[in-house]
Amino acid sequence: MTEPLLQMTGIQKAFAGVPALRDASLRIGPGEVHALVGQNGAGKSTLIKILTGVYRRDAGEVRFGGRAVDLRSPRDAQGVGIATIYQELTLVPQRTVTENIVLGYEPRRPWGTIDWKAADARAREVLSRFGIELDLDRPLGSYPTAIQQLVAIGRAASMEARLLIMDEPTSSLDEREVETLFGVIRALKERGTSILYVSHFLDELFAVCDGVTIMRDGRTVGETRIKGTTKLDLIAGMLGRDPDEIRAAGRTQLATDQTHTGPVFLEARGLSSDRRLKRLDLEVRAGEIVGLAGLLGSGRTESARAIFGMDKVTGGSLKIGGREVRLSSPREAIDAGIAFLTEDRKVEGIIPDLSVRENLTLALLPRLSKMGIVDEARERQIVEGFIKAMGIRTADMDQPIRELSGGNQQKVLLARWLALEPKLLILDEPTRGVDVGAKLEIQSIIAKHVEQGCAVLLISSEFEELIEGAHNIVVLQEGRSVRRLNNPGVTEASLIHAIAEPPDHPHMEAAE
Amino acid sequence: MTAEPLDLNLRRFMRPLGGGTHLTVWVALALLIALGAWRYDNFLSAYNISSFLQYNSMFVLISVGMCLVIMTGGIDLSVGAVAALASVVAALLSPLGLIVALPAGVLTGLVAGLLNSGLIVGLRLPPFMATLATMLAARGVALIVSDRQAVSVDWTSDFTALGMNKLGPVLPWTILVAAAVVVVAWAVLEKTSLGRTILAVGGNAEAAHLMGLKTSRALVFVYLFSGACAGLAGVFLASGYGAGQPLEGQGWELAAIASVVVGGTLLTGGMGSIPATVAGALLFGLVFNMLNFENGLGVISLSAYWQSVIRGAFLLVVILLQVRLARPQPSKA
């Protein structure tokens, strides 16, 4: 076997004593397109950051181009020929295409000024390798994201990178643009450039990669050729499960019939949005918890956003209480009785400087005020009630919410929505980053409201939470609902099988 | 309300003053007043207090308007120019009496505020650019309407009564009107759902939108309110000093921003205090007032330009103190 271009072995890294990488390794051959997969928190980005000189490793060895290297900064990494295309574009949109390609490495005339003719020639040459022709004098920002991304790749290629790292390169591209990108990747590969390809869209790996490294819990747990492996094997590896067990589980569908007496509250048929949701079929009854399962990027959050009026619905129908509706803003969704506890507490949830009381009652304000004046006595009474009922640990209700622990912040946000007495509660990862005690409390609060007739749509990456909590689980793949599993009877293995296997029917397989 | 007879909750007690993070400005204000009373003979005289309050009532007004705007994460650069324009409008209409000239001045401010909010909410321009445009436009209109001259008010009408008369020996009417506006702003912020929405927009606009809050309405309100405050300040100017001044008010927007910041309000929005902003405005006026007394003592003699330098240095000191003393607790999340 030829000497690999990159060989990382026994890499360890801890942050403030918490290990992020325990024993990670990565090997990429010359001209190889190599995939790196793993769940969130598996250590992919830490490993990449060590490779690009952003972090320094605690232990282990990095060999690049046949010799041991010690990369202390991104500049060092670029110096040896490692370039990165980040998920967020890191070019300068106001400057021209040429300027972006040569930025920092401008060809100069003998007396020091920039040789723009040579710069244009270089830019044109780089882009033509990929079969793209652009107006080099136009600001980069005037081109679509996909083109900008290709220019970023072109820039890296022009710097004679030997290893190109692409972090989720397709997350903002449409299908046609993905094809163009794949063409560029193949062209780079032919010229001998190695590529490290990080993506949670597993199907893409089979289209473009040669080898794959699987990480879990800070360790490299597998390395294999892409030919000869299956998506199910990859997922089993990422989750640390036995693939044979999952295959066996798929054959014994243990669906039993359910008797949920409540009427259908929400019904989505073929719902699609402008944000990666392609076809959602879904039904949630009053007093029922429906789980949404799928890999990262399968469209779980996008489903919730479309239902809640955050994203533009581009097709299909949505019925609430049997009546067809079009919700074009969160306001309208709330008025229709829907509440949405979002995944990202910091960005979409808390108002950090407002108190627990104010955070809790924000959505309720219209009902708490007469002629715009807040009835503070009633407000305090309601907040008091929720703090007691939900066991929110706070010094007093006027404490700024930012001073609370993550679990308690989450309880306040949950209370914010429960105070509205919603008919449908959408929960996106309600217990992520929450300690075990608070997690159980949150789950029991949700269960209580379901008993009282609230419908719940539960998005979770934790299989246990879905299997134990949900009456039905709708499985999403690539923006489409492909299966529906009925509880009791769903096992972890059967759920993973449903997530990993390609859909058996073009339409959703309803087990009812 | 809790049923306890005596609520010793410190956080709630502090809230009317603006809470712990705003404490610096109150302490600084108290220290300066004590220093002034000890050092200058006439510092606490009726004349000094009333002329101090009369002049600074204008700054209290625009600072409070600015405070609401900044709480949403915005900025209003147009207040000084709008005040100048409103002073010209009010002076031109002063023969018709206060009953016409006062509303006309406020209306001038409201029109500017409407323009600002239209640009910001309707056209989604950044507040900095939108209010900068309004500032230039308002200044231009003020110069055109006044023909580049100070417009003398009609002394025979009742117009000057507002700016020059007092309640008792010390309290000018302008400070009473300004105080009423402060109370209104404070009540809106503390007691209404609109006030909560203002803070929520500044604290986390995305979350506010997802909760279905009427964020646009809150933004329109703060720019209208700030415009009206500037307009009223313009009326005070014309009424108290006898002329509409098309060139007055330059740098007022910066003085107002400084008052808000000294009061402990974050420029990034989401938190802040109306009372502490008032204290900030008074603190600034007080530094100016005391420098005048220093000149009067004959120990030093400072030109207006040096006074500006000293005020700038003072601003820095107060803000540094705030950063050092009232560093917010890091989030545990």
Quick recap of the structure?
The complex is a heterodimer of chains A (512) and B (333). Chain A is of the alpha/beta class.
Give structural notes.
The complex is a heterodimer of chains A (512) and B (333). Chain A has 512 residues and is of the alpha/beta class. Chain A has four domains: 1-81 and 161-240, P-loop containing nucleotide triphosphate hydrolases (Rossmann fold), CATH 3.40.50.300; 89-160, no CATH class; 254-337 and 422-512, 3-Layer(aba) Sandwich (Rossmann fold); 352-421, no CATH class. Chain A has a six-stranded mixed β-sheet with strand order 6-7-8-3-9-10, sandwiched between helices. Chain A has a six-stranded mixed β-sheet with strand order 16-19-20-13-21-22, with helices on both faces. The radius of gyration of chain A is 26 Å and the shape is globular. The termini of chain A are far apart. Residues 251-258 and 506-512 of chain A have low confidence and may be disordered. Chain B has a single domain (20-30, 43-321), classed as ABC transporter involved in vitamin B12 uptake, BtuC (Orthogonal Bundle), CATH 1.10.3470. Chain B contains 14 helices and four strands. In chain B, the strands form two sheets. In chain B, strands 1-4 form a two-stranded antiparallel ribbon. A two-stranded antiparallel ribbon of chain B has the order 2-3. At the A-B interface, helix 11, helix 12, helix 14, strand 18 and helix 15 of A face helix 9 and helix 10 of B.
